[in-house]
Amino acid sequence: MLGFLHSKKFWGLIILLVLLFILVPLVLVFVAHPVKQNPTGNVNGKAQTLTPTANTELATFNGAPIKVNDLNSLAKEQYGTSEAKNLTPNNLNILLNIYVERKILDSQNLGDVSTQIAQVEKTTGLTGNLAKYEAIREKFTATGIKSWIIYSIDFWLPPVEDLSQASPERQQQSTDVNNALDFAKTALQQGIPVFNIATQIVKKYPSIAQILAVNSLTFNNPTNNKANWNNPVAYYYNKNNLDNPFYKTLYTITATSPVTKVLNDGNMGGHVIKIVKINNPNGILDNYQNWLKNQESSFVITNNALKNIK
Prior knowledge:
Elements: H1 2-5, H2 8-32, E1 57-61, E2 64-67, H3 72-79, H4 89-106, H5 114-124, H6 128-144, E3 147-156, H7 168-189, H8 194-204, E4 212-214, E5 217-218, H9 226-229, E6 233-236, H10 245-250, E7 260-263, E8 269-279, H11 288-295, E9 299-301, H12 304-307
Antiparallel strand pairs: 1-2, 1-9, 3-4, 3-6, 3-8, 4-5, 7-8
Helix pairs in contact: 5-6, 7-8
């Protein structure tokens, strides 16, 4: 008996029993409680990997499906591959947005844009469709969106809600700004060039020379010259600026309006605005990005792997 206890067979049997005692409960637990999978078929809730074919639908635009195969030419242009199905979901998402924007621009029927394309190629170095659609975008903006062409004299001061509690220096600056704006308003009404007005303000009100701007650009550059400032500037409508007194006033000004003085909130200075021209007065009252976003309202991502990409 003692010999059997010290034999290899005995100890082998003991090891086998121990293993069975440990493993059997684990197997039973696993069978009773299998690993749960999410609806995408992946463990731990990870996002589904997109493995598209050429005919995989990614989105719809105006009710028409956009499939992977529709993005092949764009994939070649943007990423150097002729098969969009080989790209990542992020890349496909970028291509979809470019594809839809171009569809929208094509639908504007802007006619011949060869002159604009040549100019874009010359100034940017872009070629092919990159130059074409940049030219179309610029032509649409120039001919379809309302813009105000203006001269402005501008001042900005740190906010002081209660001017009577401000330092004497700050109070004097505020007084000088108001006087300078009145001076600029009268001078612009008289047709005096904006550069001449700015140089006179610098001499008359030296305490505010460093915060003077013309057409929203700081005027205190020692190399100032007439040619830098006597070209008016275009401002396009943007609803995000409606809380700003300058823009809120500008967007209500018509071509027949007189020179207008605008004070900023919180005693923060102000502006004098002179309209030179209003382009496309009956055009779309919005900037390009807001207009485009509105046009994309029927663009719907339908592929689950792309829906959560920002």
